[in-house]
């Protein structure tokens, strides 16, 4: 049974969150004749994006998730381009804090929620690097949809968090996914 692994690092925009994802594609997961290859993934993310439109308030975000990804090469020319989609479940924790001289020590409590995560995008093969490891670039859309939203209080102000998030994702992948 042949197994293939990949590791990628990506960022989301406009809420900048750094994500690291590990993927595992195995023969037992891909039995039959399908053009779509399935992989299991586990991901973790961290970021401190600005909260809404206030440049002095930021939201510390930590997220973890796992799920299934489907990938299909497009065209017949060496599989340099593929499309992928993913679906999974995860956990997101958020805290609001101030980043301004007069308020620098202010922060809220943390709140955590379960979430559905989804992704869709393209991957561009960039060739082999070392010992059959392939380097790829990915561009896509990702979404986190918490099971419910929440409100956090900080020094008398209330902030709505745990809202659905959709973002553009740009990443680099290193792996052994070629046949």
Structure description:
By secondary structure, the protein is mostly beta strands. Helix content is 0%, strand content 69%. The chain contains no helices and 10 strands. It has strands spanning 3-13, 18-26, 37-47, 57-74, 81-98, 107-128, 134-146, 150-154, 157-161, 165-175. It has an 8-stranded antiparallel barrel. A two-stranded antiparallel sheet has the order 8-9. Strand 8 (150-154) and strand 9 (157-161) form a beta hairpin. The mean pLDDT is 88.
Indicate the overall shape: elongated
Multimeric state of these chains? single chain
Euclidean distance between termini CA atoms: 12 Å
One letter per element, helices H and strands E, the order comes to EEEEEEEEEE
Structural class based on helices, strands and sheet pairing: mainly beta
Number of strands: 10
C-alpha Rg, in Å?
19 Å
Percent of residues in helical segments?
A: under 10%
Strand content: over 45%
How many helical elements? 0
The strand line-up of the biggest sheet is 1-2-3-4-5-6-7-10
Question: Which stretches are low in confidence, meaning pLDDT under 50 for 5 or more residues running?
Answer: none
Q: What characterizes the major β-sheet?
A: 8 strands, antiparallel, barrel
Mean pLDDT: 88
């Amino acid at each position: 049974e042949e197994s293939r692994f990949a590791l990628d690092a990506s960022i989301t925009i406009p809420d900048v969150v750094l994500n690291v994802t590990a993927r595992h594609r195995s023969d037992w997961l891909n039995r039959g004749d399908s053009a779509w290859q399935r992989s299991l993934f586990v991901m973790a993310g961290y970021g401190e994006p600005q909260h809404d439109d206030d440049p002095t308030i930021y939201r510390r975000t930590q997220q973890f998730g796992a799920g299934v990804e489907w990938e299909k090469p497009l065209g017949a020319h060496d599989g340099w381009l593929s499309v992928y989609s993913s679906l999974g479940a995860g956990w997101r924790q958020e805290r609001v804090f101030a980043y301004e001289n007069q308020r620098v020590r202010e922060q809220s409590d943390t709140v955590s929620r379960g979430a559905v995560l989804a992704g869709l995008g393209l991957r561009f093969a960039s060739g082999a690097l070392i010992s059959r490891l392939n380097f790829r670039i990915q561009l896509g859309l990702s979404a986190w949809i918490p099971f419910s939203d929440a409100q956090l209080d900080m020094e008398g102000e209330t902030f709505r968090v745990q809202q659905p998030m959709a973002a553009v994702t740009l990443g680099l992948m290193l792996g052994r996914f070629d046949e």
